Amino acid sequence: MNYRIRALKNGECDVRDYITFQDGGEETSLYNLYIWLIEGGEAPMIVETGVSDVEGFSRGTAQYIPGGVRQRPEERTLPLLASAGVRPEDVSHVFITHFHGDHYDSFHVFGNAKMVASREGFPGTEHLAPRVAEALKEPGRLMLVGEEEALPGIRTFHLGVHSACSQGIAIDTAVGRVVLPGDLVYKYENIEDGRPQGWSDVNAWRAAADKIRQMGDIIIPAHDPAVLERWPGGVIG
Ligand SMILES: [Zn+2]
After folding, report:
1. Centroid of ligand 1 to alpha carbon of 190 (angstroms)
2. Going by C-beta distance under 8 Å and a sequence separation of 6 or more, which residues neighbour residue 93?
3. Bridge partners (DSSP) listed for residue 158
4. What is the pLDDT averaged over residues 209-225?
5. Residue 115 in contact with residue 156, Cβ under 8 Å?
6. pLDDT at 145
7. Helix (H) or strand (E) holding 156
């Protein structure tokens, strides 16, 4: 099974380097927010939902994301997917790398999708955004996974760093097995130069980074604008 992944830009912001790197300071660097569209299966799937509560997210992160998230109207989750030819009701699975707002809080707009999240560290639906919790009350909407082939050609694996529920997703494509590691790897420098992210236990981070390297051939950082330069048009595979 070979899929194709498309990086869809959901917004951008400036993040202080002490978040990005263990040894970073007060300076900032540019982050993109992404929704990853997986095409080539029976139905479109996505990894991460994009942020729905931009103001709330920006307020909660103001200390280390000065100025907050900038999101153009066409970058919002639904118009963004529409521009890629995807209707939300057609999405079959929504993989969540972890439960921070920018990664999961638009799940409720995918009315027929199963959420695929890590069993280990799962926070419990009552701790999620109210509209997402409501959507998950419908039977069969939540698929909790461990280290397994969750769907043909798509492997999930628990990481537990950055967030207790963090998981990576490894997706078979024509260019190799592509790993979406979530927020353990914000930028290419984290994984390529072995620079642990800020606010993490360095040893735990290094062990998780080894796991990420072992799980695939191509690692795509969660927030690096350079993804769109290395993969023109954001097309991977
Ligand atoms: Zn993030």
Report:
1. 14
2. 45, 46, 113, 114, 115, 116, 143, 151
3. 167
4. 98
5. no
6. 98
7. strand 154-158
Q: What is the mean pLDDT of the chain?
A: 97
Q: What is the mean pLDDT of residues 33-58?
A: 96
d(CA 166, CA 132) in angstroms, rounded, equals: 18
Q: What is the pLDDT of residue 1?
A: 85
Please list, in sequence order, all residues whose beta carbon lies within 8 angstroms of the beta carbon of residue 144, skipping any fewer than 6 positions away. 117, 118, 119, 122
Separation of 28 CA from ligand 1 center, angstroms? 15
Indicate the Cα dihedral angle 12, 186, 61, 163, nearest 10°. Answer: 140
- Ligand 1 mean position to 97 CA, how many Å? 9
CATH class of residue range 4-232? alpha beta
Q: What is the CA(163)–ligand 1 centre distance, in A?
A: 11
- In whole angstroms, how far apart are CA 54 and each of 11, 33, 77? 10, 11, 11
Rounded Cα distance between 222 and 136, Å, is 25
Give the SS3 label for residue 126.
helix
Confidence (pTM):
0.97
Do 128 and 96 meet the contact criterion of CB atoms below 8 Å apart?
A: no
Q: Are strands 167-173 and 93-95 parallel, antiparallel or unpaired?
A: unpaired
Q: Is the dihedral of CA 194, 198, 202, 204 positive or negative?
A: negative
H-helix or E-strand spanning residue 131: helix 130-136
Distance 221 CA to ligand 1 centre (A): 10
What separation in Å is there between the alpha carbon of 32 and the centre of ligand 1? Answer: 9
Smallest Cα–Cα separation from 43: which of 77, 117, 93? 93
Residue 185 contacts by C-beta under 8 Å, 6 or more apart in sequence? 191, 197, 209, 212, 219, 221, 222
Q: What is the domain partition of the chain in residue ranges?
A: 4-232
